[in-house]
Write a structure and sequence with these properties.
Layout lengths: L1 H7 L6 H8 L3 H9 L4 H19 L6 H10 L6 H10 L40 E11 L2 E10 L4 E8 L4 H14 L7 E4 L8 H9 L3 E4 L9 H13 L9 H16 L13 H11 L6
Parallel strand pairs: 1-4, 4-5
Antiparallel strand pairs: 1-2, 2-3
Helix pairs in contact: 4-5, 5-6
C-alpha cells in the first residue's frame, strides 16, 4: 500500500521524501515499479476498466451492486465483493442521495376518496394491470417546474409524463392521457395515487371513468402506500435534477425527458426486476409470456 501511494502521488511529492516518511527505501520502490504484474493484477486492471466504463455509462449513478449485475450481464465472472473492493480503491461511488419533499396537496374539501385497493401489493404479474402516479417539482431560475408521471408497476417503466409551470389537474391528466395513448390498456386496469386534490378532482375522476379505470388511493397518513412512484422521484432528483442548475423550464424539461426516455426506461438496471431495464424486462415478458423475478 505504501508503494502504491507513492506511485499515485509521485507528481506531487518527491520520491525521496515519501520514502523517508513511510520508512522504505527508494530501491524498494523502484523494484516495485519494475516487478512483473501477476495474473491477478492484470485481471483486476481489465476488470477495473470495465467497471469504469459501466460507471460512466450509468452517469455515475451505479454503486457496486448494479455494476456487478452489469458485469454479469456482459459475461464477466467476478464476485460482488471484488467489484466493491476495486471501486473503493479507485474512490468510485454512486452519487449521494439527498432528501426531498412530497408535493401533492391534500384537498381540504369534502371529497369522495377511492379505497386503497392496491394495499402495498407492488408485485404485479402482467403489464397494464396497475399504474401508479405521483407529481413533484424541480427548481429552475425561471421558477418551479412541476412534473407528473404514470408508471406501470409491472416493469417500473414510466409510460406517461407531464411537465408544466402549474401543479393543476391538467398536469396529471396529461400524463395519464399519454400513458393511455402509448399502451394497450388491459382489462380491470387500476390507477393508484395519493389523495392529492388533483387526483380527487372531478375532472380526473371523469377521465378515469371514461376509460373504465379503477381508482385506488393511499390510506391517510400512509406514505408507503405509493412508495414506488415516490421512489422514482427520489431517483430522478438525486441522479439528475439535483445535479443540474437549470436556467429555464425548457432546459429542465429537456433534461428530465432525456433522463427518463434514454436512461431510466432503457438502460438503468432495477433491482426489483432482476437487474434489468424496464424496456428489456417487458421485451422478455412479451417473448416468453411469463417472467419470474427472484
Amino acid at each position: 500500500m505504501k508503494f502504491e501511494f507513492m506511485q499515485g502521488h509521485r507528481k506531487e511529492f518527491k520520491v525521496e521524501k515519501m520514502a523517508q516518511v513511510f520508512g522504505v527505501t527508494r530501491c524498494g520502490y523502484y523494484e516495485y515499479l519494475n516487478r512483473k504484474l501477476s495474473q491477478r493484477d492484470l485481471d483486476n486492471q481489465a476488470l477495473l476498466q470495465g467497471i469504469k466504463e459501466i460507471y460512466k455509462d450509468s452517469r455515475g449513478t451505479y454503486g457496486s451492486p448494479r455494476v456487478h449485475a452489469e458485469l454479469k450481464r456482459q459475461g464477466k465472472a467476478c464476485s460482488r465483493k471484488r467489484v466493491s473492493k476495486l471501486m473503493h480503491g479507485e474512490k468510485i461511488q454512486a452519487k449521494m442521495r439527498k432528501k426531498w419533499k412530497v408535493t401533492t396537496r391534500h384537498s381540504k374539501k369534502t371529497v369522495e376518496i377511492a379505497p386503497n385497493h392496491l394495499d402495498q401489493q407492488f408485485r404485479v404479474e402482467e403489464p397494464n394491470k396497475v399504474w401508479v402516479s405521483d407529481m413533484t417539482y424541480v427548481w429552475t431560475k425561471e421558477g418551479w417546474l412541476y412534473v407528473a408521471i404514470v408508471m406501470d408497476l409491472f416493469s417500473r417503466k414510466v409510460i406517461g409524463l407531464g411537465m408544466g409551470d402549474s401543479m393543476e389537474t391538467d398536469l396529471i391528466m396529461g400524463a395519464l392521457r399519454q400513458a393511455l395513448y402509448s399502451r394497450r390498456k388491459g382489462q380491470d386496469l387500476m390507477h393508484h395515487s395519493d389523495r392529492g386534490c388533483q387526483y380527487t378532482s372531478k375532472e380526473f375522476k371523469e377521465l378515469c371513468c371514461w376509460h373504465s379505470i379503477k381508482l385506488s388511493m393511499s390510506a391517510k397518513g400512509h406514505c408507503y402506500d405509493n412508495a414506488v412512484a415516490e421512489s422514482f422521484f427520489h431517483t430522478l432528483k438525486t441522479e439528475e435534477a439535483h445535479l443540474c442548475n437549470y436556467r429555464t423550464r425548457e432546459e429542465a424539461k429537456s433534461s428530465i425527458f432525456e433522463y427518463i426516455e434514454v436512461f431510466y426506461n432503457r438502460k438503468r438496471l432495477h433491482s426489483t426486476i432482476g437487474y434489468m431495464s424496464p424496456v428489456d424486462f417487458e421485451e422478455v415478458w412479451e417473448n416468453t409470456g411469463t417472467l419470474k423475478v427472484v
